[in-house]
From TrEMBL:
Domain of life: Bacteria
Pfam family, one: ABM
Protein name: ABM domain-containing protein
Residue ranges occupied by any ABM domain in the UniProt entry: 4-94
Organism listed in the record: Hymenobacter fastidiosus
InterPro entries on file: ABM_dom, Dimeric_a/b-barrel
Amino acid sequence: MSIVIRIVRMTFQPDRTADFLKIFRDSEALIRQMPGCQHLELWQDADLPHVYCTHSHWDSAEALNAYRRSELFGQVWPATKALFAAPVLAFSVNQVDASFNLR
């Protein structure tokens, strides 16, 4: 079974990015401690400084969904969502091993 990689691209109101960064800093350690969370990092768009992505790895879709149903998510997500300037783009992917022989 492969891990689930979750990417969430968020466009913030430019004057609210500091508010988002505070929310992220205050919650990132707690998110990393959630059962099934293997990895969490924050990326900033190279050209659009008010656009950020979270990149996380989860043991399974069930672990990700358990986090999304958690009290922590119920606090973090509404506070973050209030700062958006555009709809969020969120998707889950699985890593592909492309090293197999094509013959």
